[in-house]
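Structure in, sequence out. Go:
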């Protein structure tokens, strides 16, 4: 790691600690200020004077800093994503807040100010996020001026070398500058690059590189103390999640298809049930208004049920608000036809999306109410029922029809490793604008890299998407 990265990583520790102390102090002084006192007098000040209060804040701040360290928030790189960092710092501060709640429960004589508690939490997230944002902007500015840039040599033939070179050139803020791109592994060529430009990292970009060439690169990196990275081959890519165990005294490594096995599945199920119940409560007025609008516009049921394939290709009835006519009037172009009966006819006119899924932006089967609820994504809300029944999850690959699944390629079958979801990585990553292959790639990435933290990020992005995006069809 560069000295500049070590500096910026180290300086965050006192900055975070100071920001947490400041948050606690601001919340306290706001609570005892004359303006707030006039609205609601404080009765806790004598029980917990400011000095004793700040001692408690310092202990909690130290605990949060330790949590930040465990969350790897002090290995700062200019490439760290803001949302990734924000969710982790919010998580750490929330753990500290839970510690305060637990301590308050044990010590009943402690002050009883909800204003200070929530105020301190809000200002802690705000102050820490702002201070880290400033540090990140300063570091990025220095990187763009050449300070702390990683000089990298891309070694090996193939598209990955050209792809990485183009990425680093077009995104200087990533902090990488290519100083050499030898296609063949030769010690003298590497030394020539090292003497002329210096090398901080070697990236081996050929997954099929012979073992002897890899050993040369490793020896070179050991001699000159250079970081070594490589693109994994097919087996190594599948071996990202392994578990060691012994069978009759024989050591074995088990490849896990997804972290969503064992306790991971239990934790996700608990989150699903809780989230679905909260969703029903929050969206209950929307349910009532939508049901009335559907009934007033056209005949037919409020809910539409369709058989989809879930985990392990098990069929289930997926619920949606009905957004299509059940049957067209005799005077229309499709007179007397049912909406489902028109699907083959519409497919013959062309599919707006590559792959097995059918998409049509101006689908004549959709009602006026249906267009509104689809655009607002309200039509998907009844799937909370499927979540509670255990057929779906809040997050996961979208469930598809059996006729569509029959056209899946072999690698796309991995989508059935877990339960389908109401939303997922593909939905927040581009929705209908993605090709089917891109959607599958994102969903497989989710399956292989699942964590509760990832689910929290995707839920936040889903709520943002619901509030801002109107491109659903």
């Amino acid at each position: 790691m560069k000295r500049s990265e070590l500096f910026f990583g180290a300086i965050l520790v006192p900055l975070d600690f100071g920001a947490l102390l400041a948050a606690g102090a601001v919340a306290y002084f706001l609570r005892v200020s004359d303006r707030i006192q006039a609205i609601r007098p404080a009765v806790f000040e004598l029980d917990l004077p400011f000095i004793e209060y700040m001692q408690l804040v310092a202990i909690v701040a130290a605990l949060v800093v330790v949590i930040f360290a465990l969350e790897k928030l002090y290995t700062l790189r200019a490439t760290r994503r803001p949302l990734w960092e924000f969710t982790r710092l919010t998580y750490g501060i929330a753990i500290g807040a839970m510690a305060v709640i637990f301590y308050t429960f044990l010590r009943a004589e402690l002050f009883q100010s909800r204003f200070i508690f929530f105020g301190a939490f809000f200002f802690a997230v705000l102050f820490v996020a702002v201070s880290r944002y400033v540090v990140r902007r300063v570091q990025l500015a220095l990187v763009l001026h050449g300070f702390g840039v990683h000089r990298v040599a891309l070694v090996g033939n193939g598209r990955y070398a050209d792809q990485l070179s183009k990425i680093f050139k077009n995104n200087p803020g990533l902090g990488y500058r290519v100083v050499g791109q030898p296609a063949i592994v030769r010690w003298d060529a590497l030394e020539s690059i090292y003497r002329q430009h210096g090398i901080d990292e070697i990236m081996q970009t050929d997954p099929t590189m012979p073992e002897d060439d890899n050993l040369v690169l490793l020896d070179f990196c050991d001699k000159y103390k250079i970081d070594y990275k490589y693109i994994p081959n097919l087996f190594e890519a599948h071996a990202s999640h392994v578990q060691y165990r012994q069978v009759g005294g024989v050591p074995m490594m088990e490849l896990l298809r997804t972290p969503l096995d064992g306790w991971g599945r239990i934790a996700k199920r608990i989150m699903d049930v809780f989230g679905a119940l909260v969703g029903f409560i929050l969206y209950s007025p929307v349910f009532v208004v939508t049901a009335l609008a559907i009934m007033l516009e056209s005949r037919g049921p409020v809910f539409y049920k369709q058989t989809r394939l879930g985990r392990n290709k098990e069929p289930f009835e997926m619920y949606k608000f009905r957004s299509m006519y059940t049957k067209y009037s005799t005077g229309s172009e499709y007179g007397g036809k049912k909406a489902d009966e028109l699907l083959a006819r519409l497919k013959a006119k062309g599919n707006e999306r590559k792959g097995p899924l059918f998409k049509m932006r101006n689908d004549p089967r959709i009602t006026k109410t249906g267009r509104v609820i689809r655009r607002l994504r309200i039509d998907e809300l009844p799937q909370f029922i499927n979540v509670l029944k255990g057929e779906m999850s809040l997050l996961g690959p979208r469930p598809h029809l059996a006729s569509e699944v029959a056209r899946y390629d072999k690698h796309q079958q991995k989508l059935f490793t877990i339960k389908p979801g109401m939303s997922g990585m593909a939905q927040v990553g581009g929705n209908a604008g993605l090709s089917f292959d891109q959607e599958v790639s994102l969903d497989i990435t989710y399956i292989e890299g699942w964590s509760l933290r990832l689910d929290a990020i995707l839920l936040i992005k889903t709520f943002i998407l619901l509030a801002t995006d109107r491109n659903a069809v």
